[in-house]
Structures are given as C-alpha cells and as structure tokens.
Write a structure and sequence with these properties.
Layout lengths: L14 E5 L3 H7 L4 H7 L1 H14 L3 E8 L7 H24 L2 E6 L7 H14 L5 E9 L1 H17 L10 H6 L11 E4 L18 E4 L9 H11 L10 H14 L1
Parallel strand pairs: 1-2, 1-5, 2-4, 3-4, 5-6
Length: 256
C-alpha cells in the first residue's frame, strides 16, 4: 500500500507537514538514552525528503523543535542543536544537487549563534532552488506566530497603512511564517499521539490529518507514500455536501 505506483501523481498534495515525534521514546524502547534517538531521527528526515521529491510534493514542513522543547534537559537541547548544525554541513551539497530550497522559521533568535549562522548560509545558498521548499519549524509555536501577526496588524493600523476593513484572511496569511505558500493539505504525526501540539494552527484549518503509530526513527518514504495514498481516498468537501462536490466535478469534466 505504501508503494509509489499506488499514488495518483495528479492528486499529490502540494504541501505536506509532519510532526516528527517519538525519538526519545524510540531510544528508550531500544534500551538507549534519549539523545541516541535524536541522532537516529536524521535518516528518516533524509529519506522522507527524497520521497517527497520523488512523488512531487512542492513544500515539506517539518516540526523540528518547538518553543516548548526549550524546557527539556539542557544536554538534550544541546544535542539537538548539534544535530542541526552537523546535518546542515553534511547535506548542503545534496540540497543543491536536488533543487531543495531550505527555509527556517520560528523564534530563531533563541537558537545558538552557530545554528543561526549555518541556517542563514544554507538558506542563502539554496534560495534559488525550486524543486522542493523544505521548511524547518525551529523554536516555533503557532500561538506565538499568530500573536506576532496580530501585533503586525495593530502596527500597520496605527501607522495608517491599513483600515479595519482591509483585514482579511489574505492579509493575515501574508504575515505568517508560511507567507506565499499554500496551506498544508496533509498533516502527518508519528508515534501514535493524536494532537496538534501548537503547530500551524491557522494553516491547518482544512488539512487532512494522518496519524501513524511508528516512532519517527522508523518512518520512511514508504510511510509518506501510504499517507498520501490514504489522503487521495478522502473526500475533501470544504463545507460543501458530497452531492455538490460531485456536481462540481461533472461541470469541470464537461468543461474540459
């Protein structure tokens, strides 16, 4: 079921978001310390990115580190930052070869300077790539993001740049971290948890959710393909009825 040939290439979601969960619990299940799981979580990131390119996803957003994660033990946080820097160094040439544009968003000022420096360099070097945009949500929380957008709206209003009637969904979208990108059609979460954890709350208003029991270190591109295959068998109504969707499809078909 997870094979690429089962997927309708004409109905692949443009934007897939993933909450990569379960590194620590995977390590503990192996009798290892939690940080071992974070290192093992690098390989599924690489394989998932390759799978996304293979199937034609244009935007892939990975929840790499939340604002809440700062409360974890300092040694674990340090390892997570080391993994980020090490992976950027190792994979930058591959990103260039595969047309991957790296984008990072969140409260990046909270990251260590070495991380910020490597992120800036990687984003600058890959900025013209257009095969896949890889978003890393780092030190990110959706409530923070929405609050920052609200502050920007108030500032624009106070400066006379906008009026109350100018505030609409398009304007709010332009002030979010994902400005200029389509909303995720598909949200995947690993490790068997069934919650959103303060991730892209505005953007996932109409996303399809896919939960998988595997811990992140065990996730591979076949699991991504299975999630997309499952997505393609769902009816996305956006408030309409099934009958209305069918009639609309008939009209579009006749128009072609």
């Amino acid at each position: 079921m997870g094979a690429l040939e089962n997927i309708d290439v004409n109905r692949v979601p443009k934007h897939v978001a993933i909450i990569m969960d379960g590194n620590g619990r995977w390590a503990e299940s192996q009798g290892q310390i939690r940080t071992f799981g974070h290192w093992q979580g690098v390989e599924p990131v690489k394989d998932t990115i390759e799978g996304a390119i293979e199937v034609g996803v244009k935007y892939l957003t990975l929840f790499a580190f939340s604002t809440e994660n700062w409360v974890r033990p300092s040694d674990e946080v340090k390892i997570l930052m080391e993994i980020l820097v090490s992976t950027l160094h190792k994979e930058i040439d591959s990103m260039m070869e595969n047309g991957i544009r790296l984008n990072a968003f969140g409260q990046l000022d909270y990251l260590p300077e070495a991380c910020r420096k490597d992120l800036r360099e990687a984003m600058t070097r890959t900025k013209d790539n257009d095969r896949l945009t890889l978003n890393l949500a780092l030190s990110y929380g959706s409530r923070w993001e929405i609050l920052e957008a609200m502050k920007s709206l108030v500032e624009k209003f106070e400066k006379g740049e906008i009026k109350g009637n100018d505030i609409n969904e398009g304007l709010v979208n332009s002030l979010l971290c994902t400005a200029g990108m389509p909303d995720p059609e598909l949200l995947i979460r690993t490790s068997g948890e069934h919650r959103i954890s303060n991730f892209l709350l505005w953007q996932i208003a109409y996303s399809e959710f896919y939960f998988i029991d595997k811990f992140w270190p065990d996730f591979r591109r076949q699991d991504l393909f299975e999630a997309i295959h499952n997505f393609q068998h769902r009816e996305r109504r956006f408030g309409s009825t099934s009958k209305q969707i069918l009639e609309s499809q008939k009209i579009q078909s006749n128009g072609q």
